[in-house]
Amino acid sequence: MKFFLDTANLDEIRQAAALGLVDGVTTNPTLISKEGDVDFKKHIAEICKLVSGPVSAETTSNDRDEMLKQGREYVKIAPNVVVKCPLTTTGLEATRILNDEGIKVNVTLCFSAAQAVCAAKAGASFISPFLGRLDDIGDNGLRLLEEIIEIYDNYSWKTEVLAASLRHPIHVIEAARMGSDIATMPFKVFQQLLKHPLTDKGQEQFLADWKKTAAAKA
């Protein structure tokens, strides 16, 4: 399973990329806004310099033609830019046209298996079911992910399943168990994947014991 970082923060991306564990980045208008008064295209270009994998840049309109205009501009920023379109009627229309032009599209804000089927048939390169947001309203995001993977496995669609809105390591592990192609996560969740109290305790004990051994030989 590929790891994407769900952030627009350059420092976070640098830290994660340095470990060699990040395969791509997803951004959205909210994440970009958290970075202050930045030039959108220049900021996406900087992210693309830090990772070689797909970098999702989201369109900011409900109008099909405006989505197309933005998407065509975004892919000029860097070769690894992926256009992000919402799972709406106009968003899928734009997805179909962009796909026909050879432009990869990440269809976002997916909350049902039926929507995921429509996105795949429209030519989406990625489908982004939002697990955490479903959990927030008392639904089961992981169940949706399981349904999408099961359906996609029945066909030869090229669409990759990108588990999104992941809130904790359990989301990531369960997505991996189900066979999700990608998991995109905040930097905090990425860090949590690497941590375990017994690892810290064990390393502390090993170093303390070695220090005693070294002191005895001195």
Protein model, in words:
- There is one protein chain.
- The chain is of the alpha/beta class.
- It has a single domain, classed as Aldolase class I (TIM Barrel).
- Helices cover 52% and strands 17% of the residues.
- The chain has 11 helices and 8 strands.
- It has helices spanning 10-18, 29-33, 40-50, 64-74, 89-100, 113-121, 131-136, 141-152, 169-178, 187-194, 197-217; strands spanning 2-6, 24-26, 55-58, 81-86, 105-110, 126-129, 160-163, 182-185.
- An 8-stranded parallel barrel has the order 1-2-3-4-5-6-7-8, surrounded by 7 helices.
- Helix 4 (64-74) packs across helix 5.
- The protein is globular, with a radius of gyration of 20 Å.
- The protein starts with a strand and ends with a helix.
What is the CATH-assigned architecture?
Alpha-Beta Barrel
Class in CATH?
Alpha Beta
Spell out the CATH superfamily.
Answer: Aldolase class I
Q: What sort of overall outline do the alpha carbons produce when their principal axes are compared? A: globular
Q: What Rg do the Cα atoms give?
A: 20 Å
Q: How many strands?
A: 8
- Percent of residues in helices comes to 40-55%
Question: Biggest sheet, open or closed, and with what strands and sense?
Answer: 8 strands, parallel, barrel
